[in-house]
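Make up an example, fold above all:
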Amino acid sequence: MIVRVKQKNSNALSTVYEKMKGVTGKEVAVGFPAGKANAYPDGTPVAGVAAAHVYGIGVPKRDFMRLAQDEINEKTAPIIAKALQLEKKEPMYEAAGQAAQAAIQNAIVALDDPPNAPATIARKKSANPLIDTGHMKGAVTYVVRDRSR
């Protein structure tokens, strides 16, 4: 299966999170946030491996973060809309973080283009380009923090 991403609104995700920032001065960092992301058993930072795939540094470009963007927008927009009507806004951040975390993990599993080389498939015993041990997928997380700007 080949996954193609067509982005309808390149600013949609930014717009959603900007609305969240204005609510309580908090933000949700999703993916591999500093201080939360862990390392592989050999000490290699998961965030570095993820960035290499997203930007195609030394490996074929596999931008799973962009692939997750539509699902993140779809899942977080109703959470934010509901929270904006309520007095207590803090649960919105947790719910939005959980939804975005799941969307990124889904994208890691779903992404299959560009495919692995035959030698890589033989070594991994899997054709999924971003799943070897499952460590990166398991390391996706979020943190609610004070707004950075």
User: Anything to note?
Assistant: The chain has one domain: 17-146.
